[in-house]
Amino acid sequence: MLNGLQPWHLIILVLVVVLLFGAKRLPDAARSIGKSMKIFKAETKDLRDEDKPAEPDTKHITASEVKVETADDQVAQLQKQLDELKRQQAADTADQAHKHAG
Predict the structure, then answer these.
(1) Dihedral, CA of residue 7, residue 12, residue 16 and residue 22, to nearest 10
(2) Does residue 26 contact residue 17 with C-beta atoms inside 8 Å?
(3) How remote is the C-alpha of 19 from its chain's centroid?
(4) 3 burial class (0-12, 13-18, 19+ CB within 10 angstroms)?
(5) So where are the chain's domains?
(6) How far, in Å, are 46, 51, 61, 99 from residue 56 at the CA level?
(7) SS (H, E, C) the chain
(8) pTM
(9) Average pLDDT rounded to a whole number, residues 5-14
């Protein structure tokens, strides 16, 4: 007897599978197997990627992209925000006083 599958072996195998599962369910089964294999490949790829050390970000930053803020700049910005909030609060208070008066 020869080692290996003969063409008639494959024909019998296909017939048995069709008889067991039915011709209507075979495309759905093949589709679900394909989806499962795709998910399995993605998961194994993720696992392999986790084992590799993370590569550092190689983006080069130019001097024009770097914005260095000193403490004085930060204080000035906070002061502007505080002044704006005070103006809004004063306007809201004036509106409320106007509503109560009228």
Answers:
(1) 70
(2) yes
(3) 43
(4) exposed
(5) 7-51, 70-102
(6) 18, 15, 14, 60
(7) CCCCCCHHHHHHHHHHHHHHHCCCCHHHHHHHHHHHHHHHHHHHHHHHHHHCCCCCCCCCCCCCCCCCCCHHHHHHHHHHHHHHHHHHHHHHHHHHHHHHHC
(8) 0.35
(9) 86
